[in-house]
Design a protein that fits this description.
Order of helices and strands: HHHEHHEHHEHEEHE
Largest sheet: 4 strands, parallel
Structural class: alpha/beta
Shape: globular
Strand content: 5-15%
Number of strands: 6
Low-confidence stretches: 1-11, 255-264
Oligomer: single chain
Helix content: 25-40%
Distance between the termini: 56 Å
Length: about 260
């Protein structure tokens, strides 16, 4: 009986040097450990859009509450009179294979996971029918960027912009103040923690945002306070609208005040 070896599938979009490395050191799925891809097809298939009904503005589960908006969005609009973010779109729940992939991208330098996660983001944006004019990744503070060596939000934003044929603007928004990790704080304190943490840069790109529909891209959102703070900084450029797109959000029953996911 002749035995045949099952070929190891190459990661989609992998460069030739990466493919050669994969032949010598085949990657394993970060969730199940199956050899061949950083996130295997079986685990990718388990990552599904969040189940409804959802808040029309922040994509948070409404649970048993009547729609179309959740209590947090209603309370924020009542307190401030307006919100900077027109809409938050979430691709999936922060659980299972999605959680494993995000954590590997963020903390284990598995940068290639930005490709499959970026595809999830693109699919979610197309489902939401909220077409932007340009894409901006959520910035990291310079200290955190040096520690990590890259900005995972920028890695996620690149395949989204490429798939949609949109400009990717990485130098228009800066994180000017280091903040405590959001998960160390109670929900009521998270907004104050990130207030004033972002600012428009002096680049030409920042002056080209007027009248444009901007898409902010991030890996995880919980209450949306960090995304809202970034959007408030972008308002100075007078855009037509600001949307946010995140890979995942913890479900409501996984929101203890000091729980995962680790934030910037």
């Amino acid at each position: 009986m002749v035995r045949t070896r099952t070929p190891i599938p190459f990661e989609s979009g992998a460069s030739l040097p990466q493919r050669l490395l994969d032949l010598l050191f085949p990657p394993r799925c970060v969730h199940c450990g199956r050899m061949g891809e950083s996130l295997c097809a079986v685990c990718r298939a388990t990552i599904q859009p969040p189940r409804g009904p959802r808040c029309e503005r922040c994509d948070r589960s409404l649970g048993a509450a009547p729609g179309p908006r959740c209590g947090l969005c209603l309370a924020r609009a009542s307190a401030t009179g307006q919100v900077a973010l027109a809409r938050i779109i979430v691709a999936t729940d922060y659980a299972g294979a999605a959680r494993s992939a995000i954590r590997a991208l963020k903390f284990r330098r598995q940068r290639r996971l930005a490709q499959p996660l970026g595809r999830l983001l693109t699919e979610a944006l197309r489902r939401a029918e909220a077409p932007p004019d340009l894409v901006i990744p959520m910035p990291l503070h310079a200290t955190r960027r040096r520690e990590r060596g890259y900005n995972q939000a920028a890695l996620l934003a690149r395949p989204v912009a490429r798939a949609l044929g949109l400009p990717l603007v990485e130098d228009a928004l800066a994180r000017v103040r280091a903040t405590l990790p959001q998960t160390q704080l109670h929900r009521a304190d998270r907004r104050a923690n990130v207030a004033g943490a972002f600012a428009l840069t002096e680049s030409v790109a920042a002056r080209a945002l007027a009248g444009k529909r901007i898409l902010l891209v991030d890996d995880v959102t919980t209450t949306g306070a960090t995304l809202e703070a970034a959007a408030e900084a972008l308002l100075a450029a007078r855009p037509a609208a600001i949307y946010a797109l995140a890979v995942a959000r913890p479900s409501l029953d996984a929101w203890p005040d000091s729980a995962e996911p680790p934030d910037r």
